[in-house]
Amino acid sequence: MNWTTAIKQYKTYLKIERGLSDNTIENYGFDLQKLIRHLDLDLKSNQPLKIDKEELQTFIYSISKKVAPRSQARIISGLRNFFNYLVFEDLRTDNPMDLIETPRLGRKLPDTLSEDEIDQLIDAIDLSYAFRGINLGHRNKAILETLYSCGLRVSELTFLKISDLFFDEGFIKVSGKGNKERFVPISENTQKHITIWRQERNHISIDSESKDILFLNYKGRQMTRAMVFTIIKKLAEQIGLKKTISPHTFRHSFATHLLKNGADLRAIQMMLGHESITTTEVYTHIDRSHLSEVLNKFHPRK
């Protein structure tokens, strides 16, 4: 099997069998292309079946000088997955990446906002802001309320559909990574702001492909991730916030504030859509003072 065929079939496997997103699959492909370029391989050769540990070590050593340890670890993980796939398909008998170590990474704690900073950002939204007759201030408020109230990823927010809103039951349906669906509780306050935005939305001439999309731009099309980033960046500048924040900061803050106020870690995992609870456990490292308070309050031998 040559490189072209191997990569094509591997991407199909990642999409169908693993259910990974298109962006993740493309990143795996980019990492394989880096290896091919570094070793100056012929795409028509059957090199994937013959490449050895020494060649891979040469490549890993070269990228260690160019990228940060976290990026290096991601590339190594991607290559290990690729060769595992070849073994799984009986195209190789071994994985040459097995004995190559991943660089040790310090735990990177996510940036968060305080409850007061969240309030300041949302209160800074100009509800009278309109463009070409469409009130976008109410849209922006509904966006921030939804990000913080439901802990969504920005892609989950931009793809949120009207048909995903189950307000009578108090939930929204979210399509997460790998198209995995989950139901997330939504507060009455957030429901109120979404309802106000939907009334404004009715005055927009909506693109045929965006009829069911909740958050639209003034042209009636689905908002982009970049647009949400820009809204948040401008609000941060407006209130003089010195932190570098993004839509994901609201998701981190959602989880941190829930944990701080006594929520169960397993419940937070389900709401965030984390496949493994070890991913959610990063939030237990953010506020150690709170965990000490919990111990002192509830442990029988305090």
Fold and architecture overview:
With 302 residues, this protein is mainly α. The chain folds into 2 domains: 3-88, DNA polymerase, domain 1; 115-294, hpI Integrase, Chain A. 52% of the residues lie in helices and 5% in strands. The chain contains 13 helices and 5 strands. The chain has helices at residues 3-16, 22-38, 53-64, 69-88, 115-123, 137-150, 154-158, 188-201, 225-238, 247-260, 265-272, 277-280, 288-298, and strands at 130-131, 134-135, 165-166, 171-175, 181-185. It has a 3-stranded antiparallel beta sheet with strand order 3-4-5. It has a two-stranded antiparallel ribbon with strand order 1-2. A hairpin with a 4-residue loop joins strand 3 (165-166) and strand 4 (171-175). Helix 1 packs antiparallel against helix 2 (22-38), helix 6 packs antiparallel against helix 8 and helix 6 crosses helix 10. It is globular and about 65 Å long. 27% of the residues are buried. The model has no long low-confidence stretch (mean pLDDT 85).
